[in-house]
Amino acid sequence: MQLLITTQVQENYGAHDWDGEGACPQYWKFKGGSDYKYDLGKFGRSEEAITELVMALRGKIEQSNDYVREYILGYEVVADDYLTEFERSQLEYDGRIAYPSIKLTLSEETV
């Protein structure tokens, strides 16, 4: 089983012409997102444990500054052979997955 985490990315178009003086202009545009996978091993986890795991992984995924934001939209437990929509479309159109989901890891002390 794997944990699949889906994110949303926003880019601040107001920051492109910003000279670094004063407040950064705010003009955020949605720019897609990413899919992250974490291998849960042979055993599933409780809903509470999955939520704790997502919170532990949050620091490896989310970012926010004057130029870009990325934040978690949702997560779910999926099968080991699960392919995201993007991975499936690559297989369909290109015959291979050139850009797989991002694999995440944690040290045991973190969870």
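Second entry:
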Amino acid sequence: MGSSLQAEACSDDTLRSVHTVAVLLCTYNGDKFLEEQLESIASQQGVKVHIHVSDDGSTDQTQHLLNRFREQLGEGQLSIRQGPGHGYVANFLSLICSPVNADYFAFADQDDVWDSDKLTRAIAALSSVPDGLPAVYCSRTRLVNETGNFIGLSPLFRRPPVFANSLIHNVGGGNTMVLNRSAKDLLCAAGPVDVASHDWWTYILVAGSGGVILYDPHPSMRYRQHEGNLIGSSMSWGDRLNRFYLALRGRNRAWNTKNMFALQRNRAFLTRNNQEILDEFCKARDARLFPRLLGMWRSGVHTQSVVGNLALIVATFLKKL
């Protein structure tokens, strides 16, 4: 199930009590922008925040900054653990699968700046979801350069966020994602799988289980673009052409292979209809040309744009999915 919303800043009537939010922050040599990110998290309005940091062996001043910030906030608001040391995906999944208790859970990168109402907006949206149904809030972002100056907006997605879209395209950046308890439990049940990215996997698994993806077209944060980004916005035509070139070299197929293996291991969490979509997609990926084209059409997989769907046809034709 998916939906799109124009989330509004929540009022006292919307949130009858102060909710607790576990902010899951992964760090690695991020001292350049970390302090501003931490301050924006600590300044969230209307919620009680505990920042859980997993550091993957930083050798710069990151750990010094974290310890100093912990002294300011107190142990009850910021805790630090050692990450698994196998990259950002494993680090984030280790955090979400850890015994962290809260009403809601938010992924956080080390170099962004959150709007002060980011979490209350997310909770206002998520509070409409029935208890026991996995749900994830995500939003558009304001793009800023290294010095924090506005340079644009992330793409606006208009099509519903559904499983058939999630298999090849991620609508929600992890730095915008807020999960309810059921979504967190679902990810924990799936375990620390080897996937292309933690946020894409969150979209895939929650959508596949019949959960709710709440996409907010209103930006909730400043997403910093700089040379150290592991994954940037890729808004320029140069970035798009580079992505297409890498897809032709097999990068996307390698990512999909990882994701499909993880999904097959966890297919019991998928709805019956989504299991059929997954099977059709997996069968088509390795079929001969005509059955491959027909199978992709039958699976219903799609992107969020006309250009993206044209690229999907080309990738299908060239067997690069």
